[in-house]
Structure formats: structure tokens, C-alpha cells
Amino acid sequence: MADALVIRNARSIATLAGGMRRGSAQNDAAVLTHDDASLAVAIVDGRIAALGPAEDVDRALTGLGLDPAAVPALDARGGLLTPGLVDPHNHLLFGGSRERELMLRQRGASYLEILAAGGGILSTVERTREATAEQLHAHGRRWLDELLSHGVTTAEVKTGYGLDLATELRCLEVYGALDAEGPVELVPTYLGAHAVPQGVFDADQSRRVLQAGAAHGLALRLHADEIHDSLGAALAAELGATSADHLAAISSDGIEALGRAADAGTPTVATLLPATTLYLMADHYAPARALIDRGVPVALGTDFNPGTSPTPNLQLVLSLACLQLKLTPAEALVAATANSAQAVGLGATHGTLEVGRQADVVAWRVPTVEQLPTWLGADLVRSVVKRGRIVAGETIAAV
Ligand code: ZN
Fold first, then answer.
1. How far is the CA of 273 from the centre of ligand 1 (A)?
2. Predicted local confidence at residue 124, as pLDDT
3. What is the pLDDT of residues 226-246, one digit of tens each?
4. What is the 235 CA–ligand 1 centroid distance (Å)?
5. 59: which of 39, 65, 153, 294 lies 20 to 30 Å off by Cα?
6. How far is the CA of 90 from the centre of ligand 1 (A)?
7. Distance between Cα 10 and ligand 1 center (Å)
8. For residue 383, how far is its CA from the centre of ligand 1 (angstroms)?
9. How many A from CA of 265 to the centre of ligand 1?
10. What are phi and psi of 111, to 5 degrees?
């Protein structure tokens, strides 16, 4: 007997069919809508088997030798279904907390001034080095549960708070254990070159680090042009990086370099992190509209970390993207599903609801994509399905 589940009574399904989008196409989440809320998604052995009007889905199940009435059913209760959210930028594992810096920044201290005063990332490095694998694991579990309950089914997770071999390896091992436990799927990034004592790496230093990584077969991603334009976006495009992240200070040359890479069919996704800009009380957000207008695929991430973006709520980031980056709700959803899957190298398997794809699905308490970013700060998740199993939220059976 196949392992099957059918999600019934959905009013709309954002399928994201076709995967990554850029330019004006980013405003199309490929939404199916049925006013009588009779849409369904059938899942067999962890993959999408059929989706659309219930009668078509039931016919497909019958065609697979399954009795539709006997397949366990999850009730979407008239809500929206989307792919599981993919967080493409997350610093999950760290020791300690950094609440003191909030008040320093209120008094006008900049990020680089806090770094120079021995705070910032270096204080987190100290606490992370002190943490045992068990402590890091418990911390990671606590925040992964929070990500999941907010609809994230896959997350890119970085090391980079050890900055010594032993701690960096310890974090990678803990990521391996957390990923094996599931249900949130992890894409680890080795971020051994996260910081230097008095600031950030310049483009030539970054190129050497990244070329060494590429020589060992690693896919590349950069924190680029976060605080000032340091030619990071152009470097990311030059090296064929999977994503260039932050970009609050990207230059027009940088936008053009990312646009050319996308035109050439080798896109470097622009992963924008507006919660960080908000939390840093900065007034200059990444130029999302200019990036989209130039045909650069845009993704959104939490940047979850203790100092500059302590939020595990990617729904809140969608709202911020609409409020501060002027994305439409559809562009924001694309940025946190199909485009963020592309940004973590999973564009061929994750981030869309299509037959044959891995069945990572969120059932929402709202009926439309437009309502997703509207309810600021609310957790709108009804149920989360990962690889075909209900892993969070309601498990109410449909009738
Ligand atoms: Zn980051």
C-alpha cells in the first residue's frame, strides 16, 4: 500500500509551476483558484501525484490504484496552499544573545562601531566556541521548531560563529544531526570567512576565499554589499555564485552584473534580508525594484542571527518586503519559495507544487496570496506537510 495523503477543500493553490522567476514573471505565482474551495493536492510516497479540482485529483488517485475515499485527508478549510517556504539565509547555530546592542544602537552606535568595541559578531564567536555540541543541538532544535511552525520546510544554515576549525566542524556536525532528524531539511553552508577583527573582507580577499571553496567543489554564496558597496555583487556574478545576499548597498554596476548573469542563463539570485535592515534601524533597504526591473531573480530570507536579525518568522519578512522593498504579495511569495529554492541550489526539486516534486506544502489560514503579507506579525500557518507527512499545525481530517 502506497503512503498517500490528500489535502482537500483548498480555495487556491499557488503552484509556482516552472520554478524560479525573474523580471515581470516574478509577479506570477501560478495560482489556481476555485471559489467553492474544491481544490486538492494528492501526495503519494512523499511526492506530488496530482493537484487541481478534486474530481481530477480523485481520478488520478484511482488511476494509481488507490481508492480516493480511503486515502487520509487533511482539511485545508477554504484556505490557500503554497509550497513549503524555503529560508535561503539563516545563521541558526550560535551561543549567547546580544540584547545589549539594541540599546547601543538606539544611542547611535553603528554595526562597525559595535564590532570595533568587541561586541557584535566577535562576542557571539566567544559564546559559540564555549558551547558544547549538545547545547548547540538543543538551541538549533528550539529555533528549527519555530521556523517550521511559521511555514519553513527547508532552510540554508550557516556556520561562521566559530572561526576556528574545531568549532566550525562542530557546527557542521550538529547541522548534519538536525537535518537527519528532520522534519526541516537543512542546506549547510560553511562560512569560515565570516568576519575579520576590524570589519569585513574586501573583494580581492573574498575572491581568494571563494576560489578556494570552488576548487573544492563547493557552491558559492556571499554576504555582499551589506554596509557599503564593496563590489560583492559583481564578484558573485563573476564567480558564478548561487546567491549574493543582503545587497542593501549594491551599486548600479552591481545590479547590471547580476542582470547580465541572469540573462546568460547562469543566475546569481539576489537574496534580500529586509528584517536585518529594520532591526539595524537603518534607512536604506536593498533596491529590490531595480533588481527585479533588471531581470535579477530576487529571494527573501530571515537572516536569523542573534545580533542583526533575531527573527525566525519568514512570514514577517514577506510583509516587510511588501512594506519596505515594495514587492507585490506574489513577488514576495515567489521570493520565499521558487526563487529561494534556486538560491540554495534546490531549484529543480523544491519550491513549487508540481507533479513529481517533493511534497512540501503549507496550508494557510488565509484564502489568497494577497492576504499572506497583510496580517503583520501573525502566524497564518494552519498545517505544514513535509515529504508528504503532516509535521506541524492542524491534522483535522477532511470529510
Ligand atoms: Zn547573514
1. 8
2. 94
3. 878 888 999 999 999 999 999
4. 17
5. 153
6. 6
7. 35
8. 28
9. 26
10. -55, -45
| Distance (Å) from CA 19 to ligand 1 centroid | 24
**pLDDT at position 399 over 70:** no
Ligand 1 center–CA 64 separation, angstroms: 45
d(CA 110, CA 105): 6
The Cα–Cα gap between 14 and 30 comes to 6
Count of C-beta atoms within a 10 Å radius of residue 142: 10
**Whether the Cβ atoms of residue 243 and residue 255 lie closer than 8 Å to each other:** no
- State the chain's mean pLDDT as an integer: 94
Cα angle vertex 74, ends 3, 62, to 5°? 50
303-348 confidence digits (pLDDT tens): 999 999 999 999 999 999 999 999 999 999 999 999 999 999 999 9
Query: What DSSP character marks residue 343?
Result: H
Distance 22 CA to ligand 1 centre (A): 23
Distance 99 CA to ligand 1 centre (A): 18
Number of Cα atoms under 13 Å in the Cβ half of residue 256: 3
Instruction: Kindly report, residue by residue over 252-295, the tens digit of the pLDDT.
Output: 999 999 999 999 999 999 999 999 999 999 889 999 999 999 99
Q: Could you tell me where the DSSP H helices lie in the chain?
A: 54-63, 100-106, 111-116, 121-130, 133-149, 165-181, 203-215, 232-238, 252-263, 274-279, 288-293, 314-324, 329-335, 338-343
Expressed in angstroms and rounded, the spacing between residue 312 Cα and the centre of ligand 1 is: 13
Separation of CA 305 and ligand 1 centre (Å): 7
- What confidence tens digit (pLDDT) does each residue in 185-210 have? 999 999 887 776 566 788 888 899 89
Give the span between the Cα atoms of 235 and 330, in whole angstroms.
29
Distance 335 CA to ligand 1 centre (A): 17
- Phi, psi (5° rounding) for residue 41? -130, 125
User: Nearest CA to 345 among 86, 148, 93, 153?
Assistant: 86
For the chain, the helix, strand and coil percentages under 3-state DSSP, each to the nearest 5: 35, 20, 40
Confidence of residue 112 (pLDDT cuts 50, 70, 90): confident
Q: Are 264 and 50 in contact (CB under 8 A)?
A: no
* 119 CA → ligand 1 middle, Å: 16
